[in-house]
Design brief:
This protein is mainly beta and 129 residues long. It has 1 helix and 11 strands.
């Protein structure tokens, strides 16, 4: 059974940092790309970042570029999202999702969301003073 479990969310002040984790089970990250997505209240789910398994390429959405970093630890079968200089606009539930090989679905957002079948349960990030 393919499963993803996120953790690391919480309440942080503007300018603060958090590191989210996405632990995979039932499959290995050697063959699956992991994307991070977020959904703020009343808004559509959007892509944040993705790391390809096929060639290691990384992608970032414009609002987070330069502030967020995606990485993976194959030995721990875990993908991380380091989030620095957080802003109130980053407040959302953050999800990770897996897709085979490359970040094809992430790069075809928003239509690509329908192609993603393996999701975590989400972790809430709240940025507020």
């Amino acid at each position: 059974q393919l499963q993803l479990v996120e953790s690391g969310g919480g309440l942080v002040q503007p300018g603060g940092s958090l590191r989210l984790s996405c632990v995979a089970s039932g499959f290995t990250l050697n063959y699956y790309a992991i994307g991070w997505y977020r959904q703020a209240p009343g808004k559509e789910r959007e892509g944040v970042s993705c790391k390809s398994a096929s060639d290691g390429s990384t992608y970032y959405a414009s609002p987070v570029k330069g502030r967020f970093t995606i990485s993976r630890d194959i030995a721990k079968n875990t993908v991380y999202l380091q989030m620095n200089n957080l802003q109130p606009s980053d407040t959302a539930v953050y999800y990770c999702a897996a897709e085979s090989g490359s970040c094809r679905s992430y790069l075809r957002l928003p239509e690509g969301l329908r192609s993603l079948e393996v999701w975590g349960q989400g972790t809430l990030v709240t940025v507020s003073s």
